Amino acid sequence: MKTPEKQRENVTWLVTEFVLVGFSNLPDLRTILFTLFFLTYLVTLSGNATIITIIYVDQTLHTPMYRFLAVLSLSETCYTLVTIPNMLAHLLMESQAISIAGCRAQMFFFLGLGCSHCFLLTLMGYDRYVAICCPLRYSVIMRPPVCLCLGALVFCSGFSVALIETSMIFSSPFCGSDRVEHFFCDIAPVLKLSCAESAGKALAIFFLSFLVVLVSFFLILLSYAFIVAAIVRIPSAAGRHKAFSTCVAHLTVVIVHFGCASIIYLRPESGGNPDQDRLVAVFYTVVTPLLNPVVYTLRNKEVRVALRKTLRRSCWVFK
After folding, report:
1. How many C-beta atoms lie closer than 10 Å to residue 197's C-beta?
2. Which residues sit opposite 17 in a β-bridge?
3. Whether the predicted pLDDT of 272 surpasses 60
4. Which residues pair with 97 in a beta bridge?
5. Would you state the pLDDT for residue 267?
6. Separation of alpha carbons 121 and 116, rounded Å
7. What local confidence, expressed as pLDDT, does residue 271 receive?
8. Of 112, 187, 208, 221, which is least surrounded by CB within 10 A?
9. Is 83 exposed, middle or buried (0-12, 13-18, 19+ CB in 10 A)?
10. Strand, helix or coil at 95?
11. What pLDDT sits at residue 268?
């Protein structure tokens, strides 16, 4: 007769794939949700592609600030590719199975890009600090090789954190239920299915996520503390307005991004509610990527001017 431990081992190996529950509890709204999310996704892809194209084409935007913006737009595009197509497919089917390897890969890229966004927004805040507080040394401090190294460091750091967290979650086999109460493989719903005791892992992941969000946000606040101190010393109102206007779009994106990250990842595991998690996840996987190109296009004068120039040039070519 098999011991309970042996039986548990046997059950473990039966879970070779997960089933993403997604929006299966809303069967009557699937068509509406699919249409809404699909149209939003198209607008997001178009907006990010427009920003990348404008920055590439317009020579006046070949500065560190706009190069970082182009990288952010490209990163946002990859970020949406990790989750939204999968979610759209789920809305068209009764259920959607995903292998454990596929789930692991999805979580790794999702976390890697998410952490990289935190670090990239921090880098963009530092760029604004140097531009406003050290304008005479800006071209020396933020020269292309330095920007390239800083950009590489951002993504290496983000994916290193993702590798640590993903390895911790998938270091133990999964048993019991194979239903992931989400529309993609996120930390909390997958960790709940682990055979091993997950409290220690949840605490370690919480601490690591807390460090990523807190350190990034603290450095951004520090940058803006120096920026505000420099702006209030500018004698003319027009000069103060011009200096602050270059930071408004970045601040808006920072508040939205870190707000969503804090709601989901900086709280005790027991406080999670699957329906609330899905609602917030829709916001930061569908709505937030849409806000970035909209905010940077509407709130940034240089991008608006470059967009009008590009459109006029395109209309002239096709005449």
Report:
1. 9
2. 99
3. no
4. 19
5. 62
6. 8
7. 46
8. 221
9. buried
10. coil
11. 55
